[in-house]
Each structure stands twice: as structure tokens, then as C-alpha cells.
Amino acid sequence: MEKVQVNDCEDVLLSMRMISVNLSEIIDKLDRKAIKSMIQKILEGERIFLMGAGRSGLVAKAFAMRLMHLGFSVYVVGETTTPAVRPEDVVIAISGSGETHSIADLGKIVKDIGSTLITVTSKKESTLGRISDVAMILPSKTKNDPDAGGYLERNMRGGYKTMPPLGTSFEITSLIFLDSIISQLITLTGASEAELKSRHTNIE
Ligand SMILES: O=P(O)(O)OC[C@H]1O[C@](O)(CO)[C@@H](O)[C@@H]1O
Question: Is 123 in the pocket of ligand 1 (CB under 6 A)?
């Protein structure tokens, strides 16, 4: 890394504000019917499988952990101990673009098996969006969307013209969305925080 002079780091605060404004705008555009069917299918599934690549995969793992805390039988696709998927299972793909090859290919296999496929994505018309039983659309910038103006370029109000780079908008939005699904599941099931805590690993 080249030597650079660190300034007052105002960009850190501006970026956080931009992210929170962006998130508020996305919340207003969410389809409540899709949220409802996603939750319905999670509750009806025999077991829940999560998958995603890169940073989206990390979001998938974070959601899987909370579902485990809630008492669901949950697995992360690609782990060595993950069992075979069966038709009565639900597979949830996290992919902003809906086109990441490994995840889109696995989505097709999931449909061939006859399991329920839910995709959390930014793109309804993507490969994953089109084949899913539920396409939960989070309209946010993905790694494939152009960076209109450069993410460090300020607009007239002093904020950024665009979000931080690549898939960050989708990744942050999906993490917060899925944690909010957990909140809804907690109110629906009446689970307590103590219950959740009791399921957390005791060997870390
Ligand atoms: O969410 P998508 O579009 O499937 O992309 C998956 C991953 O690809 C990456 O951009 C790396 O190529 C990750 O940062 C991102 O989370």
C-alpha cells in the first residue's frame, strides 16, 4: 500500500450516513407479500439450508446461526458436515446479482431435487430470481451494477453520489433484512433471548 496522509476521516461518517439513508429508501420498497411467504416457507420447511458466495456467503452464515439459536435445523451449503437436501427442505440463496455461477447452478439443482428455493437478491429477473419459489427483492446496488460517479465523489449535499463499492449495499441490506426476519420469528414463536443464548455454542 502506498504511503498516504490520513485526514480527519470525515468520509467514514459520511459513508455511514449514506448507508443508513440508502437502507431507509430500500425498506420503503420491500414487498410485504414476499416477506410473508418467505417466513411461511421457513416455518414450514423440514430443515433450512443457507448458501451464498463471498461476502453474501458470510451473511448467509450469520442468518444460519440465528436460525440455529431459534431452534431450527439449519445447515450451510458447502460445509463438510452438511447433509443431502431433500424435497421437504427449504434452501435460501443470498445473492445480490442472482447470477454468481456457483450459487445459480446450485439453485437449479435444488429445484431439480424438488426442494423449496428462496432467493434474497437485488435482481428479480436474474437466473436465481426467476427459478425461485420466493424471490425476496432487496433493491440495492450489487457487484454488477455500475458505480455512477465514483463512490468517493460527493454530491451537492456533501453525501456520496453512490454507495460504497461493489456489493456492499446489498450485503449490508441483506444482513439487516435477515436479522429483522429473525425479530419477526421471535415474536411469532415467542422465543426468549435466554432460549436463544442457551443454544449458542459453549465451546468457543
Ligand atoms: O451476492 P452475489 O452477487 O452473489 O456476489 C457474491 C460475492 O461476490 C463478491 O463480489 C466477490 O466476487 C463478494 O464480495 C460477493 O459477496
Answer: no
Instruction: Tally the domains of the chain.
Output: 1
56 CB near ligand 1 (under 6 Å):
yes
Residue with the smallest CA separation from ligand 1 atom 8 is 54
Instruction: Kindly state whether residue 151 falls inside one of the protein's structural domains.
Output: yes
In a domain, 20, yes or no: no
Nearest CA to ligand 1 atom 2: 95
State the burial class of residue 122 (Cβ atoms within 10 Å of its Cβ: 0-12, 13-18, 19+). buried
On the question of pLDDT at 145 being above 80, the answer is: no
| 74-130 residue pLDDT tens | 999 999 999 999 999 999 999 999 999 999 999 999 999 999 999 999 999 999 999
Q: How many angstroms separate the CA atoms of 169 and 19, rounded?
A: 7
Q: Residue 35: give the domain boundaries.
A: 30-193
CATH for 122: 3.40.50.10490
Task: Provide the grid cell at 155.
Answer: 454530491
142 Cα nearest atom in ligand 1: 3
Instruction: Give residue 115's pLDDT.
Output: 98
